[in-house]
Each structure stands twice: as structure tokens, then as C-alpha cells.
Automatic annotation (TrEMBL):
This is Sulfurtransferase. The keyword Nucleotide-binding does not apply. InterPro entries: Rhodanese-like_dom (IPR001763), Rhodanese-like_dom_sf (IPR036873), Thiosulphate_STrfase_CS (IPR001307), TST/MPST-like (IPR045078). Keywords: Cytoplasm, Repeat, Transferase. Residues 15-134, 163-276 form the Rhodanese domain.
Length: 279
């Protein structure tokens, strides 16, 4: 099934007992004061939706941002939230395309099989004059048996091996950060890019608040000389918007896609990492 579902599809399945809806909105980076996306969720969300806090559900044993937790930790978190691994899971965010693909990737990488994103997010839902509600949502504990798909995620050593063998690395950061002409939002990190990486700003894949259609995505990737039939690893600043590329690649028909979880936050702080700039 297509990883995207429409507001009409979700409305028709809203009362299905096997359907779980998740609001996975992270605050946008660099906005001051920070946007309280949980407060926005409490004020207005799709009926029955649970707040999927990507920050809270990440690995806090590392200083790196948004890293995958262990399978056991993720299983406990999902079970407590009331998310079963055999549920039909629909993820949305409150505006645009930014963090919902990360939740989609986390769940699929941990073994959930029926995971989708609401095309157009909450805005598409409200524009269709569909109902919303306020306040927290609590589900009864469920059973989530997590099993990490090792092929879906790359660590630093694997990433460097791919660089040495000139595999396809797609970077979701802005062109200015990729080129080294704009600073990184995280302190003490040089901007620039990995040798041989391809700049694919995640915003290039978005049109009118949703991902571009599959044919436009294929055209875009072709213009970047990306071979959809060969392995591809996605990366970004902290592993969040890399998942936007991963989702776009799946819609375009790519079959062998992994995500470098540490992303630039890890790579750029290694003393032996080669950083190139286009200035």
C-alpha cells in the first residue's frame, strides 16, 4: 500500500479499532521562541490521535540528537502509548513536511509493518472540514514487539565505508549549509558536506505543504543523477529530515534505502572526518 493516505481514507477508517493515529510534530529548528507543538496538539488534533514525541522517544544515553533507542526501549514506549506493532498506524504533523517521516521511519525500522503518513497533514484534514478535538488522548497499553531492521540504518563506520566506496549519499540540509556558506544550527559544528554527497534539500521535495507526486520526485532525483536502482543512504543535520528523503525515495520507487542516524551532528565532530565546502 502507498505510504501516504488521504484525509478521506483516514476519515473512513477513523473508528476502526485497529487504526492508531499519531501526531509526530517536532518544533521547527531555529525558531525563537520555540514552538510548543505539544500544546498545539492539546489545543487541536485529529480525534483519537496520540502525541508521538520524537524527542522523548529517542535515545537519551547519547549526546547526539534524535538517535534511535534500543529495540527493547522502543517496544516499551510504544506498548505504554497503546501502539501495537500490528496496528494500522497513520502519522501526521500539524503543518508542512518535516518530522512525520522520521516517526514513519522509526516505526518501520523497529518492525511495524502497516505505517502511513497523512498526505497534507492536519491542514488537509481541517481543510476537508473534518472534525478535531482537544485535550490529551490515552490508549490502553498494547503489545509492540520491536525488531530492528539493521539494513535500514547506518552507523558512522558504515557511513565512512560507503563514502570510501563512493556509494550514493543524499544530504537533506539546505544548500547553503551543504556548501559551507551558512552556519550549522548546532554550535561548534562546521558546515560543509561529506565527499561525494549529493545535496537534496528536503524542502525541494515538498510542494504546497505535502510531498510532490511520485512522477515529480522521480524527475527531481533523475536531475540529481540519483540511481534509484542502487543503494542510497540519506543524511541531514540530526536524522530527522533525512527521513523526508527516504520517504520521497520510496514514493519514487527506490528499494534499497538506509538512513545514517548520527547524520551531520555526529560526522562533523569527528576529528578524522573530511569536510568539503563549495565556496
Amino acid at each position: 500500500m502507498n505510504p501516504l493516505v488521504t484525509a478521506a481514507w483516514l476519515a473512513a477508517h477513523l473508528e476502526d479499532p485497529g487504526t492508531i493515529i499519531l501526531d509526530a510534530t517536532l518544533p521547527p529548528v531555529g525558531v525563537t521562541p520555540p514552538i510548543d507543538t505539544h500544546a498545539r496538539y492539546l489545543a487541536n488534533h485529529i480525534p483519537g490521535a496520540i502525541f508521538f514525541d520524537i524527542e522523548d522517544l529517542s535515545d537519551h544515553t547519547t549526546s547526539l540528537p534524535h538517535m534511535l533507542p534500543t529495540a527493547d526501549a522502543f517496544a516499551r514506549s510504544m506498548s505504554t502509548l497503546g501502539v501495537a506493532d500490528n496496528a494500522t498506524i497513520v502519522i501526521y504533523e500539524q503543518q508542512g513536511v518535516f518530522s512525520a517521516p522520521r516517526a514513519w521511519w522509526m516505526l518501520r525500522t523497529m518492525g511495524a509493518k502497516d505505517v502511513h503518513i497523512l498526505d497534507g497533514g492536519l491542514l488537509a484534514w481541517t481543510e476537508a472540514n473534518l472534525p478535531t478535538e482537544t485535550g490529551p488522548v490515552h490508549h490502553a497499553p498494547a503489545s509492540f514487539h520491536a525488531k530492528l531492521k539493521h539494513e535500514a540504518v547506518k552507523d558512522l563506520a558504515q557511513l565512512k565505508a560507503e563514502l570510501n566506496s563512493q556509494k550514493q549519499i543524499l544530504d537533506a540540509r539546505s544548500a547553503a549549509r551543504f556548501n559551507g556558506t551558512a552556519p550549522e544550527p548546532r554550535p561548534n559544528l562546521s558546515s560543509g558536506h561529506m565527499p561525494g554527497a549529493i545535496s537534496v534539500p528536503f524542502t525541494d521535495l515538498v510542494e504546497d505543504g505535502r510531498l510532490k507526486p511520485a512522477d515529480k520526485l522521480r524527475e527531481y532525483f533523475a536531475g540529481k543523477k540519483v540511481d534509484l536502482h542502487q543503494p542510497i543512504t540519506t543524511t541531514c543535520g540530526s536524522g530527522v529530515t533525512a527521513a523526508v528523503i527516504s520517504l520521497g525515495l520510496e514514493l519514487a520507487g527506490a528499494k534499497h534505502v538506509s538512513l545514517y542516524d548520527g547524520s551531520w551532528a555526529e560526522y562533523a565532530q569527528q576529528p578524522d572526518s573530511v569536510i568539503e565546502k563549495t565556496i
